[in-house]
Amino acid sequence: MFLTILATVLVLVFLANHQMAMSFQEYLTIQHVTSGYMTGEPEKIFMESIHRSLYGVGGVILLAGLLASYLLAKSITVPIRKMSSAVDAISKGEYGRKVDIVSQDEVGKLALAFNDMSQSLEYGIQLRQRFSADIAHELNTPLAIIQGNLEGMLEGVVERGDEQLSSLYEETIHLNRMIKDLRDLTLAEAGQLTLEKAPTDINVLISRAINMLEPALEEKQIVVEKQLQSAPYLNVDAGRINQILYNLLTNALRYTPIGGTMTVTTMLAMNKGKQWLQIMIADSGSGIAGEDLPYIFEHFFRGDRSRDRKSGGSGIGLAIVKQLAETHGGFVEVASEPGKGSSFFVWLPLPIKA
After folding, report:
1. Which of 21, 112, 253, 304 lies at a 20 to 30 A Cα distance from 61?
2. How large is the C-alpha radius of gyration of the chain?
């Protein structure tokens, strides 16, 4: 920028000097023709003062340009240098580094975007670390039970009966289900989960899922109210949608008290400026605390920390629901109030009309 100002000022001073000298010389020539007057000492002093004035003005402009260039360069390079330092720190594992935002211009917006990226990266790293620790903990529990029982049987401390074998078998089923769920969740988050889509009646899937849970519903004397609105067939993976329904229904069943009610509805509804098929599964349980709602779909999150994995599930069911819904181009929401139950909404896109 300063070099541009320098070149411009030098050209302007040169042209002004040249033009002034030519014009004044032409004036003196005319004066000589008409009155015989030639250039004298006053004219030389006048021209020298003009040149000095032009040089002075040019110097002032150059100094102002130099100062402006310095301030502009400083306003750009200093924040960029700080961001470069923060990037180096992040590359060395110091996640969450931020830079100060001192302006609202493009550089300030860049700093804001950098801070958001750094914060997201730090959160992602923490989530991954916590996810790994939770996986290790959740897998260790059934493995420890199986190992302890088998060691007891081998040493003769634990009786080798049908009851013990049945308990070990349940643990292996739980372990296998958790491994399968973790695999599906990982593939879905990575966008690598394969879907076998086909035109499907969602209402039929819901009715089948409820019928599968009928023995457990009767045991807790829970009444299921169905309000299934007629809807077009959706191009979805029936197995994955059934997985969503099963996870939400078993979750509602788990938290609905004995003699309570569950409500399952489907309807066409508007959201985000377009029409969707909305599936709602609600329970009459204790509800979810407001501070827990933003984290309800995270891995291994349990609102009630006192629940163990058998009474409260593995903690990845709702995370799978969220990922499977998004894999189908939809999304999931939750509404809850302590003491008044919870409602989960799954939004699935309607088929595009030809």
Report:
1. 21
2. 38
**Residue labelled with tokens 């420890």:** 144
At 333, which helix (H) or strand (E)?
strand 331-336
The letter for the amino acid at 47 is: M
How much of the chain exceeds pLDDT 70, in percent? 83
For residues 158, 163, 165, 171, the Cα torsion angle rounded to the nearest 10 degrees is -100
Contact between residue 89 and residue 96 where contact means Cβ atoms under 8 Å apart: no
Contact at 8 Å (CB) between 314 and 293?
Answer: no
Q: What share of the chain is helix, strand, coil (3-state, %, to 5)?
A: 60, 15, 25
Beta strand extents in 201-284 (DSSP E only): 223-228, 234-236, 261-271, 274-283
Residue-by-residue DSSP string for 21-61: HHHHHHHHHHHHHHH-----HHHHHHHHHHHHHHHHHHHHH
Q: What's residue 309's pLDDT?
A: 47
